[in-house]
């Protein structure tokens, strides 16, 4: 793969992670959500929007940490990936989580853009995972839970 093809692939992966292309972006899914609805668990759904946002943050951070280093901490599934329901989340906690999601996407983008990292070669510390696979995992995982956020917002009558 020449540099121009690699750049095209990296740009597509970044666009998929950040924008979603064929679906609502994560940023759009949480934009304008009234603070009082962050922790409400809609009827017949298992999680609040806050829990979904935190799950996206935790899982994405784990994927980025794993992709960047053999020394990343191991999380236990599912306990370490989900937060318990809570009554209220402060603006500071909410904004911190949203900023962390964006910062981790930027960290991963830097890994993808660094030409010393081959996109296809399995990471030496993994079990066959490559940067390409991890990019698709982030995009797929975030898209799945972003859709859940949209559904929750619709049920809470807080969607467009």
UniProtKB/TrEMBL annotation:
Stretch forming the signal peptide: none
One Pfam entry name: DinB_2
Domain DinB-like stretches: 30-149
Protein name as it appears in the record: DinB family protein
């Amino acid at each position: 793969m020449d540099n121009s093809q690699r750049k095209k692939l990296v740009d597509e992966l970044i666009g998929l992670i950040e924008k979603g292309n064929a679906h609502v972006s994560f940023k759009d899914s949480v934009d304008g959500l009234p603070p009082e609805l962050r922790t409400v668990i809609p009827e017949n759904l298992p999680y609040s929007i806050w829990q979904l946002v935190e799950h996206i943050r935790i899982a994405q951070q784990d994927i980025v940490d794993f992709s960047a280093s053999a020394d990343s901490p191991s999380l236990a599934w599912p306990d370490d990936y989900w937060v318990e329901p809570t009554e209220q989340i402060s603006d500071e906690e909410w904004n911190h989580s949203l900023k962390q999601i964006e910062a981790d996407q930027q960290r991963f983008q830097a890994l993808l853009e660094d030409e010393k990292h081959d996109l296809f070669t399995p990471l030496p510390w993994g079990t066959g995972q490559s940067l390409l696979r991890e990019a698709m995992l982030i995009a797929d995982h975030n898209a799945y839970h972003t859709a859940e956020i949209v559904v929750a917002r619709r049920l809470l009558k807080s969607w467009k």
